[in-house]
Amino acid sequence: MQNKTMSSEKYKEILYTIPKTEIHLHLEGMASVDTIWSLINKHNLKIPGIKNRDDIIKRFQVSNLNDFIDLFLNVIQNCYREEKDLVLQMDDARSYLKRNNIIYAEIFFAPSKFLMNGFSFETMMKYLDDGANRIKKEDGIEIRFLIDVSRSFGPENALNNLNLIIKHKKNSIIGIGLGGAESKGPAQDYKEVFRIAKDAGLRVVAHAGEDVGPESIWASINDLGVSRIGHGISAIQDKKLMNYLRETQLPLEICPMSNIFTKKYVSSYKDHPIREFYDHGIYVTVNTDDPTIFGMELIDEYFNLLDNDIFTLTEVFDLIKNNLYATFLTAPEKDKLWEKMEKVINKYK
Question: What is the tally of structural domains in the chain?
Fold first, then answer.
């Protein structure tokens, strides 16, 4: 599919030049090795297996979802020992977004572990909100947050997170997400949490079909009433679900390299179901999930879909447009951004 006469560098240049959006991206998943190492030194932390910067790089090489969650909770999040440390996290996010020419992002933030360590939700969100405002003012990049209420710690904890969101509402918080260990937290257990969230005017999304079969996706749709599905790759096992997703155009937040790393359903780009979803008429978007951990940024994801002959450049332009229109921006806001994006895309058609 790819025009082999065009160099890899040229493709990446094109992909960089196009303003983009991203909708499945974890704040802590953009933490740089340097940030984690600096926090370990700042707080004089003793983390098993980590004695130097190279040990952090090795620890980032996860091989399954449980290893990833352990890294996420017990290494990355564990290094943040005061709310102000999140300033470094926002700096990392800013660098990532600028490197990939992402002009709008909806970013997951998981407060549970921080709250358990005694952090103030209100203070954390002030640092994140201030950081988002600074990035918008200085770089023209807009950030909105989806708070991960987390299935890893049970429904009671999720409800506590939701109550804090409602009590300390910020304009930058647009909704909630259900992340964490999918196999340990069935969506139906969070039905009441999501009902309250929707009544409060929050958008709702859920990770589903990443580590559990299509029944998890159905539960997120029927019990939680989500507006988007995070990952959703096990839908390939259920033709009825595939047809439902096509008919409803419920967006899937596909994160190819994340799925390849965790190896639950796929082990390479070639056997990833994203192409089959696309050909079936399902609304697919491309995202990175946790770019630092997986060593895969958004430009790389799009390039690898080209380089592995899964999509043509024209189809990648379509995927970029899909990502914009799957955001929670208003219709006029989407159209305004699309004008800006299309102007660049048209140069390469």
Answer: 1
Q: In angstroms, how far is the first alpha carbon of the chain from the final one?
A: 15
**What confidence score (pLDDT) does residue 2 get?**
47
Range of the domain at 239: 8-348
Q: pLDDT tens, 136-165? A: 999 999 999 999 999 999 999 999 999 999
Q: Is 3 within a domain?
A: no
Residue 61 gets which letter from DSSP? -
Measured distance CA(126)–CA(80) in Å, rounded = 16
- Distance of alpha carbon 185 from alpha carbon 291, whole angstroms: 24
* Residue in this structure with the two tokens 């039905």, named with its chain if needed: 191
Answer whether 0.85 is exceeded by the pTM.
yes
Task: Specify if 319 maps to a domain.
Answer: yes
Find all residues with CB under 8 Å of 228, minimum gap 6, and list them: 23, 205, 250, 251, 252, 253, 326
Q: What is the CATH number of the domain that holds 222?
A: 3.20.20.140
In tens, the pLDDT along 187-198 reads 999 999 999 999
In a domain? residue 2: no
Instruction: Give the pLDDT of residue 7.
Output: 86
Question: Residue 65, exposed/middle/buried by CB under 10 A (0-12, 13-18, 19+)?
Answer: buried
Q: Please state, in angstroms and rounded to a whole number, the distance separating the CA atoms of residues 242 and 275.
A: 13
Q: Sign of torsion, CA 152 324 254 188? A: positive
Q: How confident is the model at residue 333 (pLDDT cuts 50, 70, 90)?
A: very high
Looking at residue 177, its amino acid is: G
What would the pLDDT profile of 20-39 be if each residue is shown by its tens digit?
999 999 999 999 999 999 99
Distance CA 191, CA 160 (A): 14
305 φ/ψ angles, rounded to the nearest 5 degrees:
-65, -30
In a domain, 1, yes or no: no
pLDDT of residue 3 exceeding 70: no
> Measuring CA to CA, which residue among 102, 45, 49, 122 is closest to residue 78?
45
CA–CA dist 98, 178 (Å, integer): 27
SS3 assignment, position 67: helix
Supply the pLDDT for residue 290. 93
The DSSP output letter for 27 is G
- Token look-up 């709310």 returns 83
